[in-house]
Amino acid sequence: MKIITAVLLFVAPPLASGFTTLSGGRVGTKLDAAIFFDSQTGNTEKCAGYLGEASGVPIEYIGDATEDTIKGEDCIIVGAPTWHTGEDECRSGTAWDEWLYDTLPNLGLEGKRVAIFGCGDQQSYSDYYCDAAGELYDQFTAAGAKVYGFTSTDGYEHVESKAEVEDGKFCGLMFDEDNQYDLSEERANSWIAQLKQEGFFV
C-alpha cells in the first residue's frame, strides 16, 4: 500500500499597490522604480540605502544611469547632498549639477512620478539646509514631473532651507546624518509608507 504525503505550500498573496513580499520580509515593487542619487561624503549614499531597504527599490548613482533607464522607470526617487551653500544653481557639488541642466530638460519626463530626498547639516549650515533638494524640486517640476512625498518641517532645527517649498513643508524627506543620524532609518521607513499611501508606487 502506497502512502502519499500531501504537502501544502502557502504562497503569500501580493500586497496592495503593486508590492510583493520578498525574502527576509522586505517589500518589493512590480513596477519599474529606482532611486537615483549622488554623494559627497557617503551620507547621501547611506540614506539612499535606507530608502532602498524600506522599499525594495534598487539604488544607483545618477552619473551611472542612462537616459533610457530613467525614462523607462514608472517612478523615481532622487536625492542629493548640499555642498555649494548659498548658490542659486549647482548646489550639490555632484554629477547632479550638470545633469539637471544638460540632461533632464531633454528627457521628456512630463507626468513622471518623482519623490525627492536631501541630506544636509542643520547646525553648521542652518541657513542653507538641504538647499540642493530644493533645486531638484525646481528642475524636475520645470520638466513637468509630479512630485510626491512632501513632509513636515517639525522636528528639524534649521533656520532657512530652499527645500521648504511650502510653509512648513519640505519638498520631500530631509536627512541629517551629522546631527540626527539616529532618526534617519525611522524617517526613511515612514516616508516610504507615506509614498505608498499617496499612490506613488501604483
From TrEMBL:
<keyword id="KW-0732">Signal</keyword>
<comment type="similarity">
    <text>Belongs to the flavodoxin family.</text>
</comment>
<dbReference type="GO" id="GO:0010181">
    <property type="term" value="F:FMN binding"/>
</dbReference>
<feature type="signal peptide">
    <location>
        <begin position="1"/>
        <end position="18"/>
    </location>
</feature>
<dbReference type="InterPro" id="IPR008254">
    <property type="entry name" value="Flavodoxin/NO_synth"/>
</dbReference>
<dbReference type="InterPro" id="IPR001226">
    <property type="entry name" value="Flavodoxin_CS"/>
</dbReference>
<dbReference type="GO" id="GO:0009055">
    <property type="term" value="F:electron transfer activity"/>
</dbReference>
<keyword id="KW-0813">Transport</keyword>
<protein>
    <recommendedName>
        <fullName>Flavodoxin-like domain-containing protein</fullName>
    </recommendedName>
</protein>
<keyword id="KW-0249">Electron transport</keyword>
<dbReference type="Pfam" id="PF00258">
    <property type="entry name" value="Flavodoxin_1"/>
</dbReference>
<feature type="domain" description="Flavodoxin-like">
    <location>
        <begin position="33"/>
        <end position="196"/>
    </location>
</feature>
<keyword id="KW-0285">Flavoprotein</keyword>
<dbReference type="InterPro" id="IPR050619">
    <property type="entry name" value="Flavodoxin"/>
</dbReference>
<keyword id="KW-0288">FMN</keyword>
<dbReference type="InterPro" id="IPR029039">
    <property type="entry name" value="Flavoprotein-like_sf"/>
</dbReference>
<dbReference type="InterPro" id="IPR010086">
    <property type="entry name" value="Flavodoxin_lc"/>
</dbReference>
